[in-house]
Amino acid sequence: MQRRDFMALGAATLASGLTAATAADTVPEPRATHPEMLTQKPLAFDPKKLDGISEKMIVSHHDNNYAGAVKRSRAIEEKIAALNSSVNPFELGALKREQMVALNSMILHEYYFDALGTAGAMESKLKRMLELSFRTVGEWENEFKKTALSLGGGSGWVLLVYNARIKRLENVWSWDHMHGLWDSKIILALDMYEHSYQMDFGANAKGYIDAFFKNINWDVVNARIGAIA
Ligand SMILES: [Fe+2]
């Protein structure tokens, strides 16, 4: 039995109390896989023109680490879709964990790359929101950079997010693609995995963080803030 049949069967049985055999044909189709959505986005800037970040490193990061996350996401989705009803919960659980890691890695990398390329400047709405949330833009930047530095030599992300529950911006420490402040919109994402800086900076995480700030595309960041009501 294919997974979709298995899911349909379970949903029908729960909903109606009918036996599995009679319910199978009466329920709607479950969700399909969408491998066409799991495709790699190209870099939106000229990788030769970053300031202090080499073309070799950024292209390698994009074509190997990010592309790998996209491929893993697709492979895991296909694997889960092909499961049958005899799958053990721990086998499914392991795949679901890997699915979350791969999908989050793909998404976070897209926020990271999309906001690189040096353009524009911080606009008033973002400034105002940073001041309301952190007192000053400088205090936000200091906290963001120090949170990033705390991940140097480790693995994780620093995210500036707008959270709808607490209605303010917050810097989020995000480890292994897995941590997040739920109900948040990502405004800026900084990759602190070693693959994102070791080629150019070695162990100098601070040098990488400073270079990242020099290369921010503020037009993209402003647009993300602009989309928040
Ligand atoms: Fe990365």
Write structural notes for this entry:
With 229 residues, the chain is mainly α. It folds into two domains: 3-30 and 49-114, no CATH class; 124-226, minor pseudopilin epsh fold (3-Layer(bab) Sandwich), CATH 3.55.40. The chain is 52% helix and 10% strand. The chain contains nine helices and three strands, in the order ααααααβββααα. The protein has a three-stranded antiparallel beta sheet with strand order 2-1-3. Strand 1 and strand 2 form a beta hairpin. Residues 1-23 have low confidence and may be disordered. The structure holds fe (ii) ion. Fe (ii) ion is lined by residues 61, 65, 109, 191, 193, 195-196.
Provide the structure class: mainly alpha
Major sheet summary line: 3 strands, antiparallel
Tally of distinct domains: 2
Helix count equals: 9
Helix content range: 40-55%
Radius of gyration (CA) equals: 21 Å
